[in-house]
Amino acid sequence: MDVKLKSLAQTPLLLEPNRVWRFYEGGKMIERFQGNSAGADSLYPEEWVGSTVQAVNPGEHYKTGEGLAVISRGLPEPVPLKSLTEQFPEEMLGAAHVKTYGTNSALLVKLLDSAIRLLIHAHPTKAFALEHLNSCFGKTEAWFVLSTRPEVDDPYVLIAFREEIGRKRYRELLDKQDVKEMMRIMHRVSVRAGDVVYVKAGLPHAIGEGTFMVELQEPTDFSILLERSCAGFTLREDESFLGLDPSLTLSVIDHRVYSEKEVQDELVIKPKRLRKQGESAEYQLLGYDTTECFAGHRLEVRGELGDATYGRFSILIVLDGEGKLQHRGGEIPLRRGTEIFLPASIGEHVFQTATQMTIFKSMPARV
């Protein structure tokens, strides 16, 4: 056993940038968030934070290893995070997690910044993925809006059907690629910084241009692309429907009609304060009471805020300010843009700042 690697599994792990190619442009807001004021949009609009998931891009754009996070600071050569979780699963993920999910992290965290409206798409449910895709995870996800581009007047997302549309009629729209009508029958929800949108597997959805967010997902890259052309890039039918018969794939689409009130009550999640410590506080942005798939919290640190891993890992992104994380093995500096994988073995730790610091805390599927 490599003693050096095992010691890593008992230390907060600073994550390297991990940008992933997609067929849409964006990423300028990620660059600026990470301190590059001259950053520009590109075809790398997503940062996969602490990922152990292979990115699945179409055709010649598939690259083995893309999407997989690595640890390299202080090491003679980079070590894949996935390798650490497989070698030291209980230290990294926690005994209860391993008993339920094995060495799968059961979580995918992204920073996503789209310069254009994304394609209308949907994701498979757990049941569909297990039966047809050889995966125990589908792709339920949630969006946590960090900011929007100032030049975009009305940032928005599209989600769920707002009127009755039969499967036969919807297939006709897809075959004709009548995008205008596909958009019209969906809810358009305006968003701004601080909003949280819950996207259940099966729901058709799209992110509008100019929205910078943290996205939490089940740990897969499965997408059913209902709209097949984006910024000059056109997908083949087999690439759009997960390589399965279109009728089979489309059977997973959720055709429930949502009223505007139901969208606001069920899909737009209201944060709530969980605890207070002096002037610091922890807020639940989306919890296990909404979905078993993941949870997202916001830590507002003013001076000091104690926390613990409680035998499970988390992924941290410093959203604002600077300070440090103290743990039994030492301390590490934190500043805006810092990304950390916090192993289950860390236990109790403390966030400290001389001013203020805001941290996004992501947690994996419930055990």
Verbal overview:
Among the domains are: 116-267, Jelly Rolls (Sandwich); 272-363, Sandwich (Jelly Rolls), CATH 2.60.120. Strands 1, 17, 18, 19, 20, 21, 22, 23, 24 and 25 form a 10-stranded antiparallel beta sheet that branches. A 6-stranded antiparallel beta sheet has the order 2-3-6-13-8-11. The chain has helices spanning 3-8, 28-33, 81-87, 89-93, 95-101, 126-132, 167-176, 179-184, 237-240, 246-250, 260-267; strands spanning 13-14, 19-20, 46-49, 70-71, 79-80, 108-114, 121-122, 141-148, 156-161, 186-190, 196-199, 205-207, 211-217, 224-225, 229-230, 233-234, 272-277, 280-286, 295-301, 304-308, 314-327, 330-335, 339-342, 348-352, 357-363. The chain has 11 helices and 25 strands. The protein is of the alpha+beta class and 367 residues long. The model has no long low-confidence stretch (mean pLDDT 95).
Characteristic key phrases:
367 residues, alpha+beta, Jelly Rolls, ten-stranded antiparallel β-sheet, six-stranded antiparallel β-sheet, 19% helix, globular
Helices and strands, with pairings:
Elements: H1 3-8, E1 13-14, E2 19-20, H2 28-33, E3 46-49, E4 70-71, E5 79-80, H3 81-87, H4 89-93, H5 95-101, E6 108-114, E7 121-122, H6 126-132, E8 141-148, E9 156-161, H7 167-176, H8 179-184, E10 186-190, E11 196-199, E12 205-207, E13 211-217, E14 224-225, E15 229-230, E16 233-234, H9 237-240, H10 246-250, H11 260-267, E17 272-277, E18 280-286, E19 295-301, E20 304-308, E21 314-327, E22 330-335, E23 339-342, E24 348-352, E25 357-363
Antiparallel strand pairs: 1-23, 2-3, 3-6, 4-5, 6-13, 7-14, 8-11, 8-13, 9-10, 9-12, 15-16, 17-18, 18-19, 19-25, 20-24, 21-22, 21-23, 21-24, 21-25
